[in-house]
Amino acid sequence: TVTEGSVSAVVPPGAMTGPITVTNNAGATATTGFFYVAPWVTGFTPRARVGETLTLTGRSFRAVSSVSFGGVITTNLTVVSNTLMTVVVPVGAPAAAPLTLESPGGRFISVSNFVLAPRIGGFSPSGGPVGTLVTVTGSGLSRVAEVSFGGVPAAPVSVTATQVTVKVPFGAGTGPLVVNGGSGSDESQALFHGFPQVLSIVPSLVKVGETVTLNGTNLLGTTAVLFGPNRLASTQIAALDNRRVTARVPEGASSGSVWVVTPGGEASGGPIAIQGPVPVISGVSPALGSVGTE
């Protein structure tokens, strides 16, 4: 409806937040202020972790003042354009919930849910034998159904949104922890150290100062190699990989078992035989004598 002093119009489908432009045969003019239309989301990243950025596409984003995840408002949103915006998933976001956008034009609630993917923040202890209770902390953990230790899976003992407890399974290997469940998976940055095992030591007959190779499992992260009954520590060790460690036989070491110490525990192998030092003759006294002379 048009009169000399006013125009009324029905908001058309697809209208977006912005100035209203009136056009006649003399030209066009636009309002200085915005007409606000309720935002509408046509698509968004369906799954992400706390702290990650979500991309939303749609319309009438220009005046969006807040975005919430199941009632938890993000403090970090960026309106790129009227049809594109990004938000950072906030701490405390629920496992699955709709997105809610607020603007002067109204409220939009997504039909589909955003799903919070799991994120491992840390775990304790850093290693241990079969049966050790490990606590994994993080976010988005409520749907975790399995924790893998170096590829060996275990079912959790208890699960909450921020914590999973699980026992180290038989055969657990050294490697990252991986959580899996209905909302996705995540891998820890740190390694979990499985209980070590020494299967062989080569060579088994050595001298002080020579290097031996310990072969076994879960040897990555070895912190000490100890020789003999007095458990004398080698001053030069190197973990070549998860199955091999080299160590120099220290001065004063005795024959016997050899221990390897890792964050996952300690284990022994052997025994090995350590030859004493080659005798050195510094002199003879007396210099001559008959049979029976001492």
Blueprint of the fold:
Layout: E1 21-24, E2 27-30, E3 40-44, E4 47-48, E5 53-59, E6 66-69, E7 72-73, E8 77-81, E9 84-88, E10 96-97, E11 99-103, E12 106-109, E13 114-116, E14 119-124, E15 127-128, E16 133-139, E17 144-149, E18 152-154, E19 158-159, E20 163-167, E21 175-181, E22 184-194, E23 197-202, E24 205-207, E25 211-217, E26 224-227, E27 232-233, E28 237-241, E29 244-248, E30 256-262, E31 265-275
Parallel strand pairs: 4-13, 15-22, 24-31
Antiparallel strand pairs: 1-2, 3-5, 5-9, 6-7, 6-11, 8-9, 10-13, 11-12, 14-16, 16-20, 17-18, 17-21, 19-20, 21-22, 23-25, 25-29, 26-27, 26-30, 28-29, 30-31
Instruction: Supply the number of helical segments.
Output: 0
Radius of gyration: 35 Å
The residue fraction in helices comes out at under 10%
**Could you say which overall geometry the principal axes of the C-alpha atoms support?**
rod-shaped
Strand proportion, as a percent range, falls in over 45%
Calculate the terminal CA-CA distance, rounded to whole Å: 135 Å
Largest β-sheet summary: 5 strands, mixed
Please give the order of strands in the largest beta sheet.
15-22-21-17-18
Q: Are there runs of 5+ residues with pLDDT below 50, and where?
A: none
| pLDDT averaged over residues | 91
Class by alpha and beta content: mainly beta
Extended strand count: 31
